[in-house]
Amino acid sequence: MPAPLEIVILAAGQGKRMASDIPKVLHDLAGKPLLAHVLDTAQALKPEAIHVVYGHGGERVRDAFPETPVKWVRQEEQNGTGHALAQAMPAVADPATVLVLFGDVPLIRPQTLKVLLAASASGNLALLTAELADPGGYGRILRNPAGKVVRIAESRDATPAEAAVREINTGFMAAPSARLKKWLSGLNNRNAQGEYYLTDIIGLAVAEGVSIATCTPADISEILGVNSKQELAQLERIHQRQQAEKLMQQGVTLRDPARLDVRGELRCGRDVVIDVNVIFEGKVTLGDRVHIGPNNFIRDCTIGTDTAILPNCVLEGADIGTSCRIGPFSRIRPETKLAAQVHVGNFVEVKKSEIGEGAKMNHLTYIGDSTVGCDANIGAGTITCNYDGVNKHRTVIGDHAFIGSNTALVAPVTVGAGAVIGAGSVISRDAPGGALTLTRAEQVTRLGWKRPVKKSNK
Ligand code: UD1
Ligand code: CA
């Protein structure tokens, strides 16, 4: 039986080059903190326990994940990666296989980590390494003439010959807990940075005759870390591109995969088309043949089959039915439910309302806290006056009602089924169904009335 898996995520570093007051691992990638990506990947491996070493930024990192089942370990001073891992080890069981992840390397895939774990299965120390054309600040993997790993040299401590090595340490490693504890206790901080380097355990393991297994990631983006805002932006683009590729593999038409941002979970039916500059946040589900026009912002919505979202809309927390037509320039706010074939047009705002099948509101309207019946027609400029300055009240509009343009519906108020409201009315009492209701001042014409003339200033 393989030893149980325990994962340690190192996330205590400051991230100086982010030039920010926010702890580095709390910066967002695709709408969620870097550390959340690593935690999701860790959870996908179904470990016995996840330990997160945090420190810089005080309790902010821990407080950002109140619900996640994690063992938090505080590293008071950031004395290096070896020191950080050592803080977590007392809480790690024995026997266990320990997998080390970094909180600022968010795109690592579970499949790659499974390969790394398999490499450490027989009690080995396993490292994930990669060949880089420009190895930069990464630790260098040093091998003997037989090709066996003997040591890692940190770039700041490397001789010119060592620095020329292009195989680098990605930072991901797996090892049995008992041996790891022993090696960690043997570390010192006699190096360029005065830190306890986790990477120095390689030399200690080799000295004990332990052989080091190595493997490589499927894609180099998996091992890229975030140390600056530039790198954060680069990883965002890589991640967005990967999500766009997946959507296209599923059959979604993207007018331009470089002009789509998915910050959450997007599920699409068949033959969905997404035009340029669309942002999806939270959980969004698009039914078959949904068409999303350019420049739309859609958060936490379900959109039914055959619905078209025309350009420049903001949709949040709405359940939109089938064959609807929304936009251009519509705003749909949370707790709105549209039945099938609803039309919502330009400069129309709908909030916390239920709109019946086939209802239309095509121009310049606010519908809030309302129930609108089937096939109702809401004329241009209709406003539900739902707020009396203290409380919110409901408006109910019956099936087939016709609300004339520029009507103010002063809630609470009910307009009956089939009612017609004359244009320009202020409706503050219930309007019965099947009748015409209107409030309107008499129209007067003054014959012979003269427009004033401008006085000449002599
Ligand atoms: C480390 C490796 C280097 C590797 C690189 C890969 C060491 C000594 N070096 O270097 O070989 O190529 O990662 O990205 O391990 N951290 C703590 N507490 C600390 C110090 C760091 O929790 O006291 C955390 C950081 O938050 C970060 C991770 O450990 O998530 C790596 O630390 P960082 O300082 O970025 O290490 P590198 O210099 O990049
Ligand atoms: Ca780093």
List keywords for this structure.
458 residues, alpha/beta, Spore Coat Polysaccharide Biosynthesis Protein SpsA, Chain A, UDP N-Acetylglucosamine Acyltransferase, domain 1, 2 domains, seven-stranded mixed sheet, 32% strand, elongated, binds uridine-diphosphate-N-acetylglucosamine, binds calcium ion
Describe what you observe in this structure:
The protein is an alpha/beta fold and 458 residues long. It has two domains: 5-223, Spore Coat Polysaccharide Biosynthesis Protein SpsA, Chain A (Alpha-Beta Complex); 229-437, UDP N-Acetylglucosamine Acyltransferase, domain 1 (3 Solenoid), CATH 2.160.10. The chain is built from eight helices and 37 strands. The chain has a 23-stranded parallel β-sheet that branches. Strands 5-4-1-6-10-7-11 form a seven-stranded mixed β-sheet, sandwiched between helices. Strands 30-33-36 form a three-stranded parallel β-sheet, with no helix packed on it. Strand 2 and strand 3 form a beta hairpin. The chain is elongated and about 110 Å long. The N and C termini lie far apart (108 Å). The mean pLDDT is 97. The structure holds uridine-diphosphate-N-acetylglucosamine and calcium ion. Calcium ion binds next to loops.
